[in-house]
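To close the section, here is one more complete example, presented without commentary so you can practise reading it yourself. The ligand is iron/sulfur cluster.
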Amino acid sequence: MAGIYIHIPFCKRKCRYCDFVSFPDFAHEDIYFVALISEMRRYASLMRGRRFDTVFIGGGTPTVLKPGRLKALLTEAKRCFDIAGDAEITCEANPESASDEKLGELIEAGANRLSLGLQSADAAVLETIGRIHTPDDFLKAVSATRSAGFSNINADVMHGLPGQTAESYLDTLRLVTDLELPHISSYSLILEEGTPMFGAVSKGELALPSPDEVADMEDAGFEFLDGKGYERYEISNFAMPGFECRHNLNYWDNGEYLGLGLNSHSALRLKGEWTRFHNTERLNEYVKELGEGKLPVRDTQKIERGEEMFETVMLGLRKTAGILRADFERRFGVDPVEHYAPAVTELELDGMLEVTEERLFLTKHGLDFQNEALIKFMEQ
Ligand code: SF4
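Output:
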């Protein structure tokens, strides 16, 4: 299985906590679009022989593109790459730009999953973090998404936000579960240096919930989702049975993916070697190099076998189902339980890891202290 990620680096306005590569300036949309199409065409022959099972258009806010562009992107992707007929094709959207026109365009082009950014159902919290939509806009967007023909819908929500309480986080989860959305991603806020929010918190203008409050929020929220029938299948992701995100599962399985667009990352087996690289994050370089017929690739790294094994463990243990021992053995020729025997034994004794005949996975305690668990594998 392999995936394609396509990055759209434009947003109507920058959220206060955001450090993604996205710009609230559309002056370069046209030249970016041309460059992105030419990047796809350059990869077409290089990717021959590879079948892709998922496509994910992310950002940024893909739905801010000019009308017709999302459809043109997906049409070109299907022309350039061997995309399976039953591929999962996701597009991210924000409530204010999930218009009937854009949603219809996506459906026509074969998209079958929509990921909507809500973050919070509390209007005051949304304003504090710099979102430009209201909770009501989200309700309208869900309704429009369903009317367009999407049933596989994700809501992105956050916890640990300034001004957020456990109750307001639970209200957010109540809103999305009442809507019976089949997938929910709930990420804890990471305060990134250089963002306006980082500056406001550093100056004491904005207060964040304490780590204990965030942990309590998370426990209450995750228990609530469990009670509603959502399975926590990854540290921050919850789904009704059959609605797990295939694109992200491939990523956590340390599978192959091709990143297209500004700052997008790729992991591919090239000439037998596990290889990672990423595109430049500078728009002018991206456009210029593609215009000159070059791929704007940076930091190509050939990953040694031992590192590839560790990556596979590190990513695989994010999933609550953990790592299938047979899959690992098929890829590396060794059983992970034998290969990492000292770490596995120590973590089992600490109650952080469980091993069955089929798989190894972190316990709830292990998931809470995932970094500590991974250090044991890394130290080996
Ligand atoms: S919508 Fe998403 S990508 Fe755009 S500024 Fe906000 S957080 Fe960043």
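Once you have examined the tokens, check your reading against these statements. The pocket of iron/sulfur cluster is lined by residues 11, 14-15, 18, 20, 22, 59-61, 94, 117 (CB under 6 Å). The chain has 16 helices and 15 strands.
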